[in-house]
Amino acid sequence: MDSEWLGRIRRLCLSFPDTSERDSHGAPTFFFKDKKMFVQYRDNHHGDGRLALWCASTSDVRSTLIQSEPEIYFLPPYVAHLGWVGVRLDRDVSWEEIESVVGDAYLNKRNPKRK
């Protein structure tokens, strides 16, 4: 597990109000109000070779991200059908992009009607 990335992601996710962290499905996972998962940190999930985040999103936003930068954004297993998007941390992705996607993930769970 890349502890530098995890530390940065942890600080970002926990900077939002009413957030917490616990392991879920074997990975560090961030929740809104201890119930609604909004980000999961994945390192080589089932040998896929990716260091990535799985982030709550909407299908429209996810499609736009994947079409614009398919080397960074992808359909994550298990949660893609819920509109989630994967973000590869092991590619040339800016911190500003990560902050934006994670911020949107948080807002999607805090205000589910904003879709």
UniProtKB/TrEMBL annotation:
Pfam families in the cross-refs: YjbR (PF04237)
Cited InterPro entries: YjbR-like_sf, YjbR/MT2646/Rv2570-like
Keyword Methyltransferase belongs to the record: no
Gene Ontology MF terms: DNA binding
Keywords: DNA-binding
Top-level taxon: Bacteria
Name this protein carries in UniProt: Putative DNA-binding protein (MmcQ/YjbR family)
